[in-house]
Amino acid sequence: MAKLSLGSTFSIFHSRHIRPPLAGCHVTKMTVADHHPSLEVVGGARDRFLPSLHTNLRLPYNPFPLIAWNRHVETIFASFFRSIPQVRLRRECLRVKDGGSVALDWVSGDHRRLPPDSPVLILLPGLTGGSQDSFVRHMLTKANGKGWRVVVFNSRGCGESPVTTPQFYSASFLGDTYEVVKHVGARYPEANLYAVGWSLGANILVRYLGKESHACPLSGAVSLCNPFNLVIADEDFHKGFNNVYDKALARALCKIFKKHALLFEDMGGEFNIPLAANAKSVRDFDEGLTRVSFGFKSVDDYYSNSSSCDSIKHVKRPLLCIQAENDPIAPSRAIPREDIEENPNCMLIVTPKGGHLGWVAGAEAPLGAPWTDPVVMDFLEYLERGASKTGKFLGDSEAVQRSSGELHHIEV
Prior knowledge:
CATH class of the largest domain: Alpha Beta
Largest sheet: 10 strands, mixed
Structural class: alpha/beta
């Protein structure tokens, strides 16, 4: 399973447009201030996307006093005390090709309330995270309030998603993502599809965008708190206070694993089930179970080959990446800035503070939505306004009919 997110970690502890440069002129920097200097804004798609984000990015990034003075305080505060919007969800359990299951949580009633061509937003939480996470709920309610159809993709074992085979998910595994996007696209063939991922979910999303490249059925995506390079992230994960996060995530993984331990009791070969069941760190869990499940020679081999930093150059759909400079889980030095700057489809925003999944700043701080939410929605709505209705992913209606007998709906 692996690397990083805080997602639900701490639940364990309980209008002016900038004119483009004139043709023929070489301009390395726009002369007019197009964003506040407290923010780093770069990327090959910077000049293309930046005007749509003017309102938010022209203002200074003002972290909430006291809370944001320390990256760990901000990370923990956001996890413990950020409000959790109440929303009624309809759960769909999707059985995938290998017999595994994932849970899709839709906003209840939207299948009747929203027209079939309403844009669809797929949310990918982080490691051990799911629909219960406060930042997921805030994004869900904000997008839904603007007429977007939203679905949370709860990976195997996460968000009380069922585990029906002796295999969880991992940073390397894209199979479930392919099937979820295909299923959602087939259900709403008239709609444009978008996705937002946090932490491990962001890493998986960017890898998916890179693998699909020109064939990607998504019309755009957003990556938040992406660790990008899991080798570097793992190095930092064992330093100082970060050990607290490591142990918390390990406990979360063990808790999920022990609920389904009977599925794994006959596993032999290189598997070390006792190590996974009693892991004291995420690395222990990945050594005992994850790297063996997905055919890697070692944990380092797994992390090296599951990092999304190498996928950026292959992304052919609009992608906005937002990171915090002081993120303790997703180190700033792991951001593939050069590849983002060279890719005409990508833009990167780095805030000076924010912690991991914190961003306690902006109009709704300290208990409301993260600073990132209005930026994300401005970006997505800009894409939707300009999205072409042609050439989008057309689902296999026959496949949906075949799978309909394997789908189960409950209210949560």
